[in-house]
Amino acid sequence: MANILIQWLVTATMAIYHPFFVSVIDFNHNSKDATVEISIRVFTDDLEKTIQKNSTAKIDVIKPTDKTVIDKLIVAYIGKTIHLKVNGQTANAQYIGYEIIKESTWVYFEIEGVKELKKLDIDCNFLYDFEKSQTNIFHVKNKGVEKSYKLENPQRLSSFEF
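-> structure tokens emitted (162 positions)
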């Protein structure tokens, strides 16, 4: 019992000194609306610090003084770090917005005009400029099938076929 307690304390201490850096990016093909719905979940402080490194403006995602400026900075950063191809064609995702849920920021995009999702290619270095141990986890849902992949820095490319 004491051994388990010691292992737990060591693990908890390591977690404090070595936090994990992860984002989860979900892609859901909505065949009814012919869209690919995208949600990006990231720790709010990681997103703020990363955008701050790339901006001269003061970044506060939770209580922005000008939400339009924050929206533009989020779109610019994500557009620079995540590139998508749907069925072999470069995809332009439309920004929907973001919301804060607990310690995470959820950012939403949508790709229109996708009647059928056969292949999704992802080139992603999201938050790699913030943290060398960044991991991006992808979940792609299409026709009731979900596929997942874990992309660790410096890996950038992932592909899903249905």
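The longest helix spans residues 2-17.
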